[in-house]
Amino acid sequence: MDGGTEFKEFIKWGEKHGMTFEITPPYTAEPNGTVERFGGHINDIQRTMIIDAKMTEEMWPYATDTAIYIYNRLINPKTKISPLTHWRQELEIPNAEPSLKHLKPWGTTAYVHIPKPKRIQARKAAPRAWKGKLVGYEGDGGHVYKVWDPATRKLVVSRDVGFPQPGDDD
Asked: Which domain of life is it from (predicted)?
């Protein structure tokens, strides 16, 4: 661990639970090689996601979160299980295997349902959904999506999201 102040609370918690930490010298990445390389790998993935989805660089936090979300669900070739499965097994959580069925391409078009009370009531043909871009997932169970609304430039978290099928015009 690099001794940054952002880790102080984590170190306190870890020591309380019997963990020991080795602090590396300031401004030297070499002792933290594995962690630094992993961070570089995640950066490569998020950069590729942004380019592939034709999104702007301001989306990097969402791309990074999603890259980590997906990484934690992929099977590690050495251990033959995903990091999330390993974590759930350690915590003795039943049904430890994560589902991947809800995953969609990052940056794909997403239609977020507008609840009836928020629709324009005077218009019968008022939209029942708005069009955004999928930029992430919320929670472990899936089916709760983070959608970027380009019109308002805000992030919305919703479970009521539809995605176009292959061949649909979006």
From this structure: Eukaryota
Domain annotation covers residue 11: yes
What values do phi and psi take at 154, rounded to 5?
-125, 155
State the average pLDDT for the chain.
86
Q: What residues are paired with 136 via a beta bridge? A: 146
In a domain, 121, yes or no: yes
Count structural domains, the chain: 1
Instruction: State how far the Cα of 78 lies from the Cα of 83, in Å rounded to an integer.
Output: 11
Cβ atoms of residues 57 and 37 within 8 Å: no
Q: How far apart are CA 23 and CA 4, in angstroms?
A: 9
pLDDT in tens, 136-165: 999 877 789 999 999 999 999 999 999 998
Q: What mean pLDDT is predicted for residues 31-40?
A: 74
Residue span of the structural domain in which 86 resides: 5-162
Of the candidates 75, 152, 159, 145, which has an alpha carbon nearest to the alpha carbon of residue 107? 145
CA pair distance 31, 35, nearest whole angstrom:
9
Q: Is residue 168 assigned to a domain?
A: no
